[in-house]
Each structure stands twice: as structure tokens, then as C-alpha cells.
Amino acid sequence: IYHYVKIENISAAIGVVERARHSLMNAERWERLGYMISMLPSKDLDTPAILAVKAFHAENRFMIGKSLEYIERLEKSCHTGEKKVAMDSCVKAELDALRAMKYYFRTDTEKSIQFGARALENLPPECASVRGFAHGLSAFSLQMQGDAAKALQQLSQALEGCDPSYPTLKGRLLLIFCFMYWFEGDLQNLT
Question: How far apart are CA 31 and CA 173, in angstroms?
Fold first, then answer.
């Protein structure tokens, strides 16, 4: 990235981050991802994939307001006037997962569940970190609706079908179970 930026080949620098994003998120290498993002120049050059990465990174650092700003910018970047900006299917699914978070924080659980489900339908298996994120938002939204039993059932099904090639997904699902039990005050299952 450094060398591409030095020779002003910004699209190549952006491409490095875009290609590495899922392997870094799956490995929980958020500091490294943040460093790579910080090496990119002006925010005006952000592609949809870079805006999604910035939103996920900000959420992981507990900067929810900043994450929501990136989501808004990503949504706006989808349409520039009359022209639709091209986004690959993975970025569209990432945007759906981020929209699930946006609506969760707005307490619009129906939309959160809808976008979470759509993200899970369209995310490829190698997007394990984002898949775990979408599962969590769907589960927490169901719990917010008072249907923790359905949320736990869906999490159990996801855990059973978990691909061992992606341990991050399994770890995230187990963590979501812990939060669900904690929120329910079910200390027996929490331990």
C-alpha cells in the first residue's frame, strides 16, 4: 500500500485492502486492517468496499456513530444522481449486514432481521466475520422482539452447519450465545 501510494497508484493501493479485508476480519486482525485503511489517501476516493471496511472497523472499535456515518456514505455512494454505481454481490451483502446494524440501533427490529437474513443469503462462506455479524444482529433483534427462543434456535442451526474452515464464524456464534444468555439472565447456560 505504501509503495502504491508513493507512486500515486491509488487504485492499486485500494485493491490491496479490498482483497485482504475478509482474511483480516476473519483472523480478527482489526489493528492491521485499521493500519491499512489509514495508509489510504483522501476519503473522497473511497470505493463501496472501502466504505464497508471502514464501517466494520469502526463498529469493531466500538465507534458506532462513526460506523453509522460510513454506512450512510456507502448507501449514498450506491446512487450518484441518475446513475447507479456498480457494486459486486459481496459488497451488496456486506451493506445488508451493515443495514441490519443500522436498523437494530434504531430499534426497527423487523428491518434489522430482514437485512440480516438477506446478508446471510448472499454472503459467500469466506465472509465468515461478516456472517457472524449478521447472525448476531438477527438474533439480538429477535430477542428484542421477545422471541429469544427462536433466536437461540437459529443460532443452534447456524452452529451445526458451521464450516470448520472458518473458526471465526464458530467463535462469533458462541459469543452471541453468551450475550443472549446474559441478556436473558440465564446464568446456568451462560456458564
Answer: 22
Distance of CA 87 to the CA centre of its chain: 16
Q: Is pLDDT above 60 for 131?
A: yes
The answer to pTM > 0.70 is yes
- Return the C-alpha cell found at 148: 429469544
